[in-house]
C-alpha cells in the first residue's frame, strides 16, 4: 500500500517498536470489536506463543478472569464494573472554588458509578483471552481500576463505556482522510483501509498492526498533552507502562503480547523505549500499587450482553457498527483460517455473506411491505451485482458493509431517497445489528436480586432468551396469576428497571380507561436490566423492600419541602403501593391520610385527593383492597374539607379565576361520581348551599359566578326562570362590561349550550354589545371569540339563524360561500389580473414584489 512520508515522531516510534520486539514485547494496536484486528491478533499469538498476554482493561477485572475463561461463557457478554463515590469527594474534584473547610458541613452521600466493558466473539480482547488460555499464557489486565478512572473523569452519565473511541471519531486527520478517500465517516475509512483486505494480507500481522498504529497515531497527533491529561488518558497510559515494565523487570525472559486500543500505543512505545527499555522506578511501583489497591472498591459482574446493545447505531460509543454483519465476517475468516488453500477466495466468502444478508433483508421487507412494494428477484439480483461492482470500483476484496448498503439503496429504493419510510431503514439496520444474546455460566456469582427477578419472570412465563420486544396481554380481573404478573411489572416499572412499559390498561393515578379489563405490556430482557438490578442490589435483596424505601423517601422529601401534608401526594403514593401489591404500606398511608386532610389547606390538592380515592374505590376488586369502609370515610372527609376551603374561589386575579374554575369543575365531577353508599343527594345539596353562601363574596370573581350558575342549572338545582333572572342581573345596564363579559365566559366554559337554550342569555349579551363603545368591544373581542369556540359548527349556525331573525337579515346576505363561478366571471377575473399586472409594470414595481 502506497504511503506518504511519516512525521518524524512516528518514525521514531516505529524504531521503538522494533527495539521492543527485540526485548520480546509485541504490541497489537487494535480497534475495538474489529474482526480484522482479531484475525491478525490470532496470527500474532499463534506465531509468538507468548508467556504473558496483557490487555487494556481495568486491573480489577482479574477478579472474574476464571468466569471469562469458562467454556459456558459465550459472547456477546460484558463486564459491568461499579464503584462508590462520596458526594464530598466529587464536589472537591469538580468544583475548584469549594472551600476545604466547608466539607465538614456536608452530609456524606454515596453514589454508584457504573461502566460496561463488552465482548463479542470477534473482539480482539476476547480473542486474546481465549488464545492465552490455549497457549497457557498468563493474562493480566493493565489499565487503571475503574475507581481510579472515574475520579479522573467525572461525568453526569449514569454509566459509560470503557472502550470509548471519541478521539478517533473527532480527529481532524481522519476527517480529512475521509474526504480524500471519498468516505462518509471514520467507520467507512476504517472498513476501506483495514476490514476489507485480503485474508492473506490480514494474516501478515506485522504489516497490519503497523498500519493500524499509524492510523491511530496520526489521529492522536491532533490532541495536545494537556487535553489528554484532563481526559485521563495520560494517567491510564502511565499505569499501563508501569504494569508492562514491572512484569519485564520481575520476569526478564517473559514473552509479552500487549493488546491495547491503537490510540494509546504511541505513548506506550515512547514511554517504554527511550534509547533503552525503561523499567519502572520505585516511586512508579509505589504509585502503581496504590492505584491497584483502589481497585478493591470496584465490584465486577459478568453479565449477558446483546448485539443490539453493542451496535453503535443504537448509541454505543465504541467499536464497529452492525455486530450481526461483522459476526458473519468473522466466521468467514475462521473458515478460511481452517483451510486457507481451498478454492474459496476472500471475494467469494464476502459475496456469499452479502447475498445471505440481502436475501434475509429482502424477506423481512416483503413481510412488512404491501405486495406492490415487495422486493422481487430482479431488485435482489441487482442489489448484489451493485454491491459487488462497487466493491471492485473501490478496490475492496469483496463487498463490505457500505457496499452492501449502497447496493440496496440503488436497487431497492424507487424514487427519491428522502421519500423512503423510516421503517425501511429500521429493518435494514436491525438485520445488520442482530439481537443475539450472550450466555454466562449458571453458577457464577451474581447479586441475589438479579437471580430473584430473573427466576420470578421465568415463573410468570416471560420469554427472556433474546432482546426482541414482546407483548404480554394480562387478564387483570379474571385470573389471579395475571394480577400477580401485573403487580410485579408495576413494581419493576416503579423502580425504573427498564424491563417493561405499559401500553394499555386502566390508569388509577389519572382515572383513565378504568373500564378496561386487560393490561398490555411490552417487555424485553436486556443487559441494561441486569445492570439496573445490580445497582439496586446495593439497597436490598428484595424488590418490595427497595420499593418501600423509595416510597418512604418520597414522603420524607415532601416533608423537607414543606408539602408533607399534601393529601394528593399521599394518596398518589398509596395508589402506587396498591398497584405493586404492597398492602401493608397502602393501609398505613390510608391511616395517615385522615391526618393529612385535616391540615391540607389547598382546595385543588384536596379535590384531586378525592378523585384518586374514587379511582381506588372503582378498582378495589382488581387491587384486592380490604378497605372499603375506610375509603368511604375518607371520601366523606374530603368533601367536608373541600366545603371548608371553598373560600379560595373568591380570588379576583384573572389567571387565578381560570384555575379556580377548573378546580370547581373537578369538585363538581367528584360530587357527581360518588359511590351510592354515600348520601349523594344530600352531599350535592351541601355543595350548592356552600356555593350560594359564598356567592355574595364573589363580586370580584364574575367568572366563578357564571360557572356556578351554569352548573347549578345543569344539575337541576335552579330552574330556567331562576337562571334567566341571574343572567339578567349580571348583564344589567349598570354592570361593568368587564364583569359581564367574565360572567358570560364562566357560563360558556361550563355550559356553552345555554346560549342556545336560554333566550335571556343571548338577549342580554346582544343588549350589552349594543351599549359598548368600539374600544371596549375590541378589547374584549378575543375573549368573546374564545368563548364561541366552545360551540360546534351546528350550534354556531343555530345562533346565527336566531340573530338573523331578530334583525330581519336575509340569509343570502349572510352567506360568504360562493357556489357558482360562470365563464363570464372567469373572463372578468382574467381581465382584472391582466390590468393589475400592466399597472405594476408601468410603476416598475416588479423587483419590489420579488423582495
Task: Write up what this structure looks like.
The chain is α/β, with parallel strands linked by helices and 851 residues long. The chain has six domains: 247 residues, no CATH class; 111 residues, no CATH class; 92 residues, no CATH class; 97 residues; 173 residues, no CATH class; 28 residues. It is 59% helix and 8% strand. It is built from 41 helices and eleven strands. The strands form three sheets. A four-stranded parallel beta sheet has the order 1-7-2-5. The chain has a four-stranded mixed beta sheet with strand order 6-4-3-8. Helix 1 crosses helix 14, helix 17 runs antiparallel to helix 18 and helix 26 runs antiparallel to helix 27. The radius of gyration is 37 Å and the shape is extended. About 3% of the residues have low confidence.
Tally the structural domains. Answer: 6
What is the helix fraction of residues, given as a range?
55-70%
**Would you report the number of β strands?**
11
Strand numbers in spatial order across the main sheet: 1-7-2-5
Alpha carbon gap, first and last residue: 56 Å
Bin the strand percentage.
5-15%
Largest sheet: 4 strands, parallel
Could you report the average pLDDT, rounded to the nearest whole number? Answer: 85
Structural class: alpha/beta
Low-confidence parts lasting 5 or more residues at pLDDT below 50? 89-108, 153-158
Shape: extended
Q: Which value, in Å, is the CA radius of gyration?
A: 37 Å
Counting DSSP H or I runs of 4 or more residues, the number of helices is: 41
Spell out the key features of this protein.
four-stranded mixed β-sheet, 41 helices, alpha/beta
Amino acid at each position: 500500500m502506497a504511503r506518504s512520508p511519516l512525521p518524524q515522531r512516528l518514525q521514531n516510534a516505529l524504531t521503538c517498536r522494533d527495539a521492543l520486539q527485540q526485548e520480546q514485547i509485541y504490541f497489537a494496536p487494535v480497534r475495538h470489536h474489529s474482526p480484522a484486528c482479531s484475525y491478525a491478533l490470532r496470527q500474532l499469538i499463534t506465531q509468538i506463543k507468548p508467556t504473558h498476554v496483557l490487555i487494556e482493561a481495568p486491573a480489577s477485572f482479574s477478579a472474574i478472569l476464571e468466569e471469562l475463561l469458562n467454556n459456558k461463557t459465550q459472547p456477546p457478554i460484558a463486564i459491568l464494573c461499579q464503584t462508590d463515590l462520596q458526594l464530598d469527594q466529587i464536589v472537591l474534584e469538580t468544583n475548584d472554588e469549594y472551600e476545604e473547610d466547608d466539607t465538614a458541613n456536608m452530609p456524606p452521600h454515596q453514589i454508584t458509578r457504573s461502566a460496561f466493558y463488552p465482548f463479542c466473539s470477534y473482539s480482539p480482547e476476547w480473542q486474546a483471552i481465549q488464545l492465552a488460555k490455549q497457549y497457557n499464557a498468563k493474562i493480566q489486565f493493565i489499565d487503571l481500576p475503574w475507581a481510579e478512572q472515574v475520579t479522573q473523569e467525572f461525568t453526569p452519565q449514569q454509566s459509560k463505556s470503557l472502550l470509548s473511541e471519541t478521539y478517533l471519531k473527532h480527529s481532524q486527520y481522519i476527517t480529512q482522510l475521509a474526504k480524500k478517500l471519498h468516505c462518509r465517516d471514520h467507520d467507512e475509512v476504517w472498513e476501506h483501509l483495514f476490514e476489507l483486505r485480503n485474508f492473506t494480507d490480514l494474516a501478515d500481522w506485522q504489516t497490519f498492526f503497523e498500519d493500524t498504529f499509524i492510523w491511530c497515531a496520526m489521529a492522536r497527533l491532533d490532541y495536545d498533552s494537556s487535553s489528554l491529561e484532563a481526559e485521563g488518558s495520560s494517567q491510564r497510559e502511565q499505569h499501563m507502562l508501569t504494569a508492562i515494565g514491572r512484569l519485564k523487570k520481575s520476569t526478564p525472559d517473559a514473552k509479552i503480547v500487549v493488546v491495547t486500543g491503537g490510540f494509546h500505543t504511541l505513548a506506550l512505545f515512547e514511554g517504554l523505549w527511550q534509547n533503552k527499555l525503561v523499567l519502572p522506578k520505585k516511586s512508579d511501583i509505589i504509585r502503581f500499587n496504590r492505584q491497584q489497591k483502589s481497585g478493591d472498591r470496584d465490584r465486577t459482574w459478568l453479565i449477558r450482553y446483546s448485539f443490539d446493545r453493542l451496535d453503535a447505531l443504537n448509541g454505543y460509543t465504541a467499536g464497529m457498527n452492525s455486530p450481526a454483519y461483522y459476526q458473519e465476517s468473522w466466521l468467514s475468516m475462521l473458515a478460511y483460517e481452517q483451510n486457507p488453500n481451498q478454492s474459496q477466495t476472500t471475494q467469494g466468502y464476502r459475496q456469499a455473506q452479502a447475498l445471505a444478508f440481502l436475501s434475509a433483508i429482502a424477506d423481512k421487507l416483503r413481510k412488512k411491505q404491501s405486495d406492490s412494494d415487495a422486493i422481487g428477484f430482479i431488485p435482489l439480483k441487482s442489489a448484489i451485482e451493485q454491491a459487488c461492482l462497487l466493491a471492485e470500483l473501490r478496490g475492496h476484496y469483496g463487498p463490505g458493509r457500505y457496499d452492501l448498503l449502497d447496493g440496496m439503496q440503488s436497487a431497492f429504493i424507487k424514487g427519491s431517497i428522502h421519500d423512503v419510510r423510516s421503517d425501511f431503514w429500521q429493518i435494514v439496520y436491525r438485520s445488520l445489528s442482530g439481537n443475539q444474546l450472550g450466555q454466562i455460566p449458571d453458577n457464577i456469582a451474581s447479586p441475589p436480586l438479579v437471580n430473584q427477578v430473573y427466576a420470578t419472570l421465568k415463573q410468570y412465563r416471560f420469554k427472556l432468551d433474546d432482546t426482541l420486544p414482546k407483548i404480554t396481554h394480562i387478564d387483570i380481573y379474571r385470573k389471579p396469576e395475571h394480577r400477580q404478573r401485573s403487580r410485579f411489572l408495576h413494581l419493576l416499572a416503579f423502580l425504573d428497571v427498564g424491563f417493561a412499559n405499559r401500553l394499555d390498561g386502566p390508569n388509577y393515578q389519572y382515572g383513565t380507561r378504568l373500564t378496561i379489563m386487560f393490561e398490555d405490556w411490552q417487555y424485553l430482557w436486556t443487559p441494561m436490566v441486569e445492570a439496573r438490578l445490580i445497582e439496586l442490589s446495593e439497597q436490598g435483596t428484595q424488590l418490595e423492600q427497595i420499593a418501600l424505601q423509595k416510597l418512604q423517601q418520597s414522603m420524607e422529601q415532601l416533608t423537607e419541602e414543606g408539602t408533607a401534608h399534601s393529601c394528593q401526594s399521599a394518596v398518589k403514593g398509596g395508589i402506587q403501593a396498591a398497584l405493586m401489591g404492597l398492602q401493608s404500606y397502602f393501609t398505613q398511608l390510608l391511616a395517615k391520610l385522615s391526618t393529612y386532610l385535616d391540615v391540607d389547606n389547598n382546595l385543588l390538592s384536596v379535590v384531586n385527593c378525592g378523585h384518586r380515592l374514587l379511582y381506588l374505590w372503582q378498582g378495589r376488586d382488581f387491587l384486592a383492597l380490604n378497605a372499603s369502609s375506610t375509603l368511604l370515610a375518607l371520601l366523606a372527609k374530603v368533601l367536608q374539607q373541600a366545603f371548608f376551603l371553598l373560600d379560595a374561589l373568591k380570588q379576583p386575579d384573572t389567571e387565578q379565576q381560570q384555575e379556580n374554575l377548573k378546580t370547581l369543575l373537578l369538585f363538581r365531577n367528584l360530587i357527581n361520581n360518588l359511590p351510592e353508599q354515600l348520601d349523594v343527594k344530600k352531599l350535592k345539596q351541601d355543595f350548592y348551599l356552600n356555593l350560594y353562601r359564598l356567592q355574595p363574596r364573589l363580586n370580584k370573581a364574575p367568572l366563578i359566578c357564571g360557572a356556578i350558575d351554569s352548573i347549578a342549572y345543569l344539575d337541576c338545582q335552579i330552574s330556567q326562570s331562576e337562571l334567566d333572572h341571574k343572567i339578567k342581573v349580571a348583564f344589567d345596564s349598570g354592570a361593568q362590561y368587564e364583569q359581564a363579559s367574565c360572567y358570560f365566559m364562566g357560563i360558556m366554559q361550563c355550559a356553552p349550550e345555554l346560549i342556545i337554550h336560554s333566550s335571556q342569555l343571548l338577549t342580554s349579551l346582544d343588549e350589552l354589545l349594543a351599549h359598548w363603545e368600539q374600544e371596549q368591544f375590541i378589547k374584549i373581542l378575543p375573549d368573546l371569540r374564545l368563548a364561541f369556540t366552545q360551540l360546534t359548527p351546528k350550534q354556531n349556525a343555530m345562533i346565527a339563524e336566531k340573530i338573523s331573525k331578530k334583525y330581519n337579515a336575509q340569509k343570502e346576505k349572510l352567506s360568504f360561500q360562493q357556489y357558482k363561478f360562470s365563464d363570464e366571471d372567469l373572463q372578468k377575473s382574467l381581465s382584472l389580473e391582466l390590468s393589475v399586472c400592466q399597472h405594476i409594470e408601468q410603476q416598475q414595481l416588479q423587483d419590489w414584489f420579488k423582495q
